[in-house]
Amino acid sequence: MDIWKLFFVALMPVLKVLLLTAVGVFLAIERVGILGADARNHLNNLVFYVLSPALVGSSLAKFVTLRSLLELWFMPLNVLITFIIGSVLGWLLIKITKAPKRMRGMILGSCAGGNLGAIPLILIPAVCKEKGSPFGDSNSCNTRGLAYASLSMAIGSIYLWSYVYHIVRVYSSSKDSDEPKLDELPEGTESAGETTENLPKCRTGPLLPLKEPSLEEGHMERLELDCVVPQEKAKEPFPSNVKQGFQKVIKKLNLRRLFSPIINGAIVGFIIGVVPTFQKAFIGDNAPLHVLEDSAYFLGEAAIPSVTLIMGANLLEGLKGSKVPLMVIIGIVAVRYIILPISGALIIKYAIRFGLLHSDPLYQFVLLLQFALPPAIGIGTMTQLFGAGQTECSVIMLYTYSLATISLTLWSAFFIWFVR
């Protein structure tokens, strides 16, 4: 296959994404009003709670077995590498551009988290269906590709909601104006190490002179009693301290966010695929309960166009414009479309050389593609959730997804040539 055929094979699925995105933009225009704010919210809930879990669970159940899990062990590590490299590059970008604090979480998240769900779910099946695809029979390629993409979505969701979520939360809670440093505090102000929170919590009254000694002695006894009680409460047994620390960690991790419906669907798919009894009951034309799995897969297929329409409707907010530094936009584009794909090609090359990956070219293509994706749409949801940088995030999404047409086409053609 020559370079022009490779380019054409990679271009077609990207054009499909672009066309569906354009339809989403059109439906979100005020004159049309089909995908307004309320409609997007309802459709997004439908995709998040029903369609995507059905697609992920049914796709994993069809393909994933205990043997395949052992063969695909490198994918979670590969996704983690993309997040780590992106975070480091995002941190360097913040230092170089001196971005305001309200944008730092969004910048780190955009550099770290790629769209490991919608784009692979659209791109990989489209590549499999193209004539001249180097990944073999289109039906087999489509089944394996959806399983790889579903696993990628599940892993990406775990990292996104357990890592990027807390990054955006931390930076969203900080203010643009830094707190005064210790040496800048005016005289008479408490230092950082001597705040009232660090002092014993005693009930104090007005500082009035006490004339009667008896009252003074009683007053001192009351103060001593009130001050001793908190000190006794502070001396908790060691197991109690460990328990409280563990509860704080669990609370900060926000397990409810971590176990999203997509993750739950992936868990169900893993169980059905790995346990032989469930696999015989649900998978295959002769399985007694195969109608349930087929129905779930049929329902899940609606997730792909729905997510793309939502993505296009959300990008309309970026058309309104915002004061985003040009260097920030250029930096994020360079990280996601130049540095990360080059790093991914080097990592996968040496992983193949050292025998860490099995010989399926489609699997290697998916691993490479994870380094070249635009930022995750979920980052926009996080900025809206915390009310910081949502307009700037829409602008970043507009530029990155507009340039993704060129970037994904070029890198997909290169990756196909790389693994064939």
TrEMBL record:
Primary subcellular site in the record, as a coarse category: endoplasmic reticulum
GO cellular component terms, semicolon-separated = endoplasmic reticulum membrane; membrane
**MF terms in GO:** transmembrane transporter activity
Q: Which UniProt keywords apply?
A: Auxin signaling pathway, Endoplasmic reticulum, Membrane, Transmembrane, Transmembrane helix, Transport
The record gives the membrane topology as: Multi-pass membrane protein
Q: Name one Pfam family in it.
A: Mem_trans
Q: Where in the cell is it found?
A: Endoplasmic reticulum membrane
**PANTHER family in the record, alphabetically?**
PTHR31651, SYMPORTER, PUTATIVE-RELATED
Q: Which family does the record assign?
A: Belongs to the auxin efflux carrier (TC 2.A.69.2) family.
Q: What is this protein called?
A: Auxin efflux carrier family protein
Q: Which organism is it from?
A: Populus trichocarpa (Western balsam poplar)
